[in-house]
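Quarterly update from the structural biology core.
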Amino acid sequence: MMNRRTFLRAAAAGGGLLVLPSGVLKGAGAPSNKLNVALIGVWGRGLAHIKGLSSENVAALCDVDENHLAEAAKTFPQAKTYIDWRKCLDQKDLDAVVCCTTDHTHAFVANWAMNRGLHVFCEKPLGNTVEEVRVVRANYLKNKNKLATQIGTQRHAHPNFNRVRELIKDGAIGELKRVCAWGNRQLRRPGYLPAEGEPPSHLHYDLWIGPAAFHPYNPEYFSGGPGANCLNWNMYWDFGNGQIGDMGSHTMDLAWNALDAGLPTSAEAKGEPFNPEVSPVELEMHCEVPANDWRPAIGVSWYQGGAMPESPAPGVNLSAIGHGAMFEGSRGFLVADFGSRMLIPVGDAADMTYYAPRPKAKLIPPMGDFLGEWINACKGTLKTSCNFDYGGRMIEMMLLGLAAYRVGKKLDYDGTAGHVTNSNEENPLLRRQYRTGWSLNG
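Predicted structure, tokenized:
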């Protein structure tokens, strides 16, 4: 029996005009061909998607804060409202979900949604542990011929991502040897906040805690505005992974987009002394990714909070680039941030006679609107630039590096099995325990 999503895909593929059981006309390119979308997490990052989702039918809104929920309902008065995302996902007429919850529930919402046959746009990171990411990625790979997914690394739409990939693939710096990315943000906290008062009546704090270990309410977790300042929970281990999950996901994406990399074979890391309650500010991690059909096995490194790679040449101040990436090749370096790039040829390669720029006609076409790419994929191709396979492999590498930091030694890794091979004591760090009543696979 055809359901609503099957009708939508058939219409997109065949161009025919279809009549759904509801009586609403649906046809490829028709104005009424809209997705029924649930927006889960309507504040913070959720606010950034209000305009993009206005072209669709926002059929459900969900947030643990009833004040934020009521405000969003003014924009989408036809939507049903929920405080518990688990109940929201059981709404029968949904086609797709946009997840803008806190990091520690991303994998839960994404996995539950795919279990119900829903397309998913999930803000980064895809999960808080290696196991979470692997579970969600495996679910997507099982359903990739039916579902469109996208991880919210919106900077990926910047044209410079394509230009950097072209330069690396076309041999502008010769054979690739090493890649590193960095971010300079520093948000320090000593540990979990002490209990302070009771949650306000409009905030369902127990649902906000969700699967994480319980920590008493403190209003500071919810302070700040709707932008980056609202991430006052992000650096606590049970709620997020600090810069790895935040700007690390954006900046490593600039490097990862050019690598066509599989899962890492090893990871090691060092930084400030380990704090069991909060993620580190200063950190550097070094991973190995296997060779593919156009490059050898290479090292991929991440630096944050003041730690930086060495400058590629005298007079090049990498610290002036707050969030950037550097590629080292046999003939020179490429340094880039989200919007610009610089080639630094070295030695006999300085005349660049070996390299011919790609003709304009063969440049990778621009992505355009990032959320729009996913919406269009839901209605037809199912193809997106940052699907759960691509982004899942990237964040799995980063989270493995965090596990290496926590134990203070190099980890050899079997990416097929998702298992550390040189010790058993590190494998529990690849997963976490959840509160009673919460399941990753619901």
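The CA atoms of residues 234 and 240 lie 5 Å apart.
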